[in-house]
Amino acid sequence: MAYLISTEQLTNDSFTKLLISTAIQLVVLNIVVHSIVAIFNNKDEVEQQSDERDVWISLKGSKAAYGLLSTWVVIILVQLTMMSIPGAYYYFDALSAEFNILNMLLAGFLLAEAFRFSTQLYHYHKGL
Amino acid sequence: MAKVLTNNVRTLRFHHQEMTQQALAQAVKVSRQTIVAIEKGKYSPSLEVAFKIADVFNVSISEVFQYQEALTHE
Fold this sequence. Notes:
The complex is a heterodimer of chains A (128) and B (74).
Chain A: H1 2-5, H2 12-40, H3 43-47, H4 52-82, H5 97-126
Helix pairs in contact in A: 4-5
Chain B: E1 3-7, H1 9-15, H2 21-28, H3 32-39, H4 47-57, H5 61-64, E2 65-69
Antiparallel strand pairs in B: 1-2
């Protein structure tokens, strides 16, 4: 989400502050979205605990997300190796190598979470 | 030809005083959406849930679930 604001703000000094503010924004967004869903949802179904189908679909989502995250980490590791090659570039010139890697890892976590929810939605719709 | 799992849950519900999906779900301790998915053939329940459903309708499990060749529509 830091990228969406402005890449000029991405410096080593401001990265920590941006990271914390982004994390807080995500938590607030989560609370708001869950509150809205809870308000519009059927109370009986909200109070129900997850059953075997919910657990199964959750496992499917986690498995898919884990595969994506593992692949992402391997790609970053390969990129790290390629950094020793002359002419190789960083993702953001304003940041040092460590913060570039940190940014990419965080992007991978976010992508994996999005993929987990998408997989769950797909299985809820299409079935197992 | 490939075999698929089919069920008569909807029919059995109808013949049991038109039991609702919610009532069956509560009896079997799953969510109503799970019963919907079972009836549509989108989810195959665990053995335990399958036996519980048969128990609710007082029939054998083979009268509820069948493993048969897929019907082709010509």
